[in-house]
Amino acid sequence: QVQLVESGGGLVQPGGSLRLSCAASGFTFSHYSMTWYRQAPGKERELVAPITKGRFTISRDNAKNTVYLQMNSLKPEDTAVYYCNAEHWITHQRYWGQGTQVTVSS
Length: 106
Fold this sequence. Notes:
Oligomer: single chain
Radius of gyration: 13 Å
């Protein structure tokens, strides 16, 4: 059974940091490209990396089947549900996690 389980979300003040984790199981993790998306209320889901201008960093640990999203200098407009995505390098089969809420507010 394929699972992507995000964790690490929560409430943080503007300028703060959070690290999200996504633990994968049920598929060959190393064969998949791992990315993060987010969806704010009333908006479409969007890919995180191109729009955060270096404030966010994605990393992965293949030994732990886990991908991380380090988020620094958080802004209120970063408030969204953050989703982990896995896409097979060849077949482009995709899996999604259930999402984790990030709220940036003072």
